[in-house]
Amino acid sequence: MSRHVVVTGASSGIGAAIARHFARKGDRLSLGARRTERLPEVAPSAFCHQLDVCDAASVERFVAATIAKNGPIDVLVNNAGLARGTEQIATGEGVAWREMIETNVLGLLEVTRRVLPHMIDNGGGHVVVIGSIAGHKAYVGGGVYCGSKRALQPICEAIRMETLGKNVRVTSVDPGMVDTEFSVVRFSGDKERAEKVYAGTRPLVADDVAECVLFAVDRPAHVNLDTIVVMPTDQANPQMVHRTN
Ligand code: NDP
Ligand code: 8X3
Asked: What residue's CA is closest to ligand 2, atom 6?
């Protein structure tokens, strides 16, 4: 049966790949991002709507519009997120830290808190969170990004406890290095620097992560995959990557 799947941050990378995979399954899609002009190209049949997860009014409009268009939400994929810079704690200025925490943590909460009551009222649903191995292991210059991803773990645990008995599944999909626009965003448009992150190694591609999401969502309703950590074979942790160059 066709499901209503909402994907945040669907204009690029992992979110776009997740949207394409669900679209191929015939599910009803609602896609959100700030760069709305990109969304119809991702999945032409999808309902596309402006979304800035850092703006509560935008989140409110987005969730209301998706339900009005596609009905009760069966699956919410909280994918919107970013890293900004590699500031260390002693020398950081705080602007990038705020942006990461507001997007990755508070933005995710703003979306989720508006969707969960509908799922509970409608007899259940599935909340997917795109975490990161950065949430499992910190690295120099990544303290705040790693912290923002680590924060998602207790949030997922709490949702599981708070919705127990309501048929709500919660899955965190936590990738290692994925070749997307992530590093271009992190380095504020410096493509040369971004390319070096993936040079000489074999990173994951967005489709690899999308397949993990699909696998979790396609399990029977009584099966909840808690956390999927997926890394390139050539990566042991955030800072140990095998390179041939
Ligand atoms: P991309 O930069 O390619 O995609 C990020 C997406 O998030 C874009 O669609 C962007 O849309 C959206 N986004 C960012 N800020 C906002 C906002 N305020 N409101 C709405 N949407 C927003 O990177 P990835 O695809 O790699 O990143 C997707 C997720 O995967 C992130 O949560 C990231 O932390 C996580 N991740 C990435 C890894 C990697 O190595 N690439 C590894 C582990 C996790 P727009 O700018 O149009 O609003
Ligand atoms: C992105 C993965 O290792 O670059 O979440 O922080 S890493």
From this structure: 134
